[in-house]
Amino acid sequence: MKQARSVLTLLLVSSGASWAQDSGSLLGVSLTPSKNSASLGVPMQIIVVLTLLTVLPAVVMTVTPFLRITVVLHFLRQALGTQTTPSNQVLIGLSLFLTLLIMQPVVGEMYDKGWKPLEQGQVTWRQALDDGSKPLRTFLVRYVREKDVRLFLEVSHTPAPARPSDLALSVLMPAYVISELKTGFQIGAVLYLPFLVIDLVVASVTLSIGMVQLPPVMLSAPFKILLFVLVDGWNLVIGSLVRSFYQT
């Protein structure tokens, strides 16, 4: 828990936050600035930390595999036609656990390179920020599309760096979001196809025998659920999602 809390703090700071602590201990580490630097008072530190905590959910949902997983699972639920089953809480909880599983090596590396040396007083917080954000940058570069990176480089009027690892997080983060949205929609479209075929067959049969007053969805839903259960759909979908992050 301490490791995850520390890394999440580094992640928030790397998104653009800049703060320091001069007295006491906050979030498990004392960030005492140098003698020549200005420090924030305790009330202002509390305000800054609370502000960062409000940004934390957005960071977790956008710059982690959580985004792709939730998009695909919601597409799957719509394709099955089960409306609110599984519930949003179940889908979000499953997505969160899978995200923690996938991000565990990245979080551990961020902790070892960034927060741990800072906690031991071996580096300054700026150096810890730079070192701790490198594993996150490597993760984002691995799954971001070059086309999306070029888009945000043009929008921000930022010159292209010599190496992908030199890209700023302000460019990588939004590029990663739209790249993951595209990937999630592609997977969702593929998931829709077999269930769409069942809907078309059931609709054709009901119309051919004159059952126009009976909604085809009511007849196709049991067949779609039965097909999904017979092929062990949850195992296939979740396994494919997790493997998509390890095989890229």
Summarize the structure in short.
The chain has helices at 2-14, 42-62, 66-80, 88-119, 125-143, 146-155, 169-208, 216-230, 233-246. With 248 residues, it is an all-alpha fold.
Write the layout of secondary structure elements.
Elements: H1 2-14, H2 42-62, H3 66-80, H4 88-119, H5 125-143, H6 146-155, H7 169-208, H8 216-230, H9 233-246
Structural description of this entry:
The structure is a single chain. With 248 residues, the chain is mainly alpha-helical. It has helices at 2-14, 42-62, 66-80, 88-119, 125-143, 146-155, 169-208, 216-230, 233-246. Helix 1 crosses helix 4 and helix 5 (125-143) runs parallel beside helix 7. The protein is elongated.
Number of strands: 0
Instruction: Count the DSSP helices.
Output: 9
Average pLDDT = 77
Q: What is the overall silhouette?
A: elongated
Task: Give descriptors for this structure.
248 residues, 9 helices, mainly alpha
